[in-house]
Amino acid sequence: MKIWVDADACPAVIKDILFRAAERTGVPMTLVANHFMRIPPSRHIDFLHVSAGFDVADNEIVKRLAAGDLVITADIPLAAEVVEKGGHALNPRGELYTVDNIKERLVMRDFMDTLRASGIDTGGPAALNQSDRQTFANQLDQFLTRHAKRP
Questions:
Q1: Which residues contact residue 1 at a Cβ distance below 8 angstroms, ignoring those fewer than 6 apart?
Q2: What is d(CA 121, CA 118) in angstroms, rounded to the nearest whole number?
Q3: Using 50, 70 and 90 to split pLDDT, how confident is the model at 113?
Q4: How far apart are CA 124 and CA 127, in angstroms?
Q5: What is the distance in angstroms between the CA of the first residue and the CA of the last residue of the chain?
Q6: Residue 16 and which of 30, 38, 44, 68 are 20 to 30 A apart at CA?
Q7: Structure confidence by residue, pLDDT tens digits, 36-95
Q8: Per-residue DSSP letters for 87-110?
């Protein structure tokens, strides 16, 4: 199993949680982004720089993803592709996307896009708070406990 991070939009506090988890568990992790970012020196953490462009990072993650891998992303269409390919997707607020809930999330996302396109201000997501960070950390830990082979 490997962890893939849609790193362009992933909050720094979530990346820090992921860095610690990769070190603690030995699960390999790759951050994928279209701009350079610092990662801690680790044999478990890699960075993949992709060219700028719409969905370039997402497409690269899907291309390299193996069934059973975990992808960290808030991008619902990417999460849907991951789940369809047999992977797991976890958003930075700790929600695990599954076969059972991803279609509902896509419908809601498309509905909100339609509202925004018609000029309705739908606001945006609330800022990531301490509770969100804790929920993410707990969900990640539970997932890794169930799925990761310990070194």
A1: 27, 68, 69, 70, 147, 148, 149
A2: 9
A3: confident
A4: 9
A5: 12
A6: 68
A7: 999 999 999 999 999 998 899 999 999 999 999 999 999 999 999 999 999 999 999 999
A8: -EEE-TTSPEE-TTTHHHHHHHHH
Cα–chain-centroid distance for residue 137? 13
Whose CA is closest to 3, among 105, 143, 97? Answer: 143
89 secondary structure, DSSP code = E
The neighbour count for residue 16, using CB atoms within 10 Å, is 13
pTM of the model: 0.87
Instruction: Look up tokens 């790759």; give the residue.
Output: 30
Whether 151 contacts 1, CB under 8 Å: no
Residue keyed to tokens 């701009």: 35
Residue recorded with tokens 């390299």: 64
Q: Positive or negative, the Cα torsion across 5, 67, 91, 110?
A: positive
Answer whether 3's CB lies under 8 Å from 27's CB.
yes
Cα(8)–Cα(84) distance, integer angstroms: 22
Torsion of CA 28, 39, 60, 113, to 10 degrees: 110
**Which residue in 72, 115, 122, 111 sits closest to 95, CA to CA?**
72
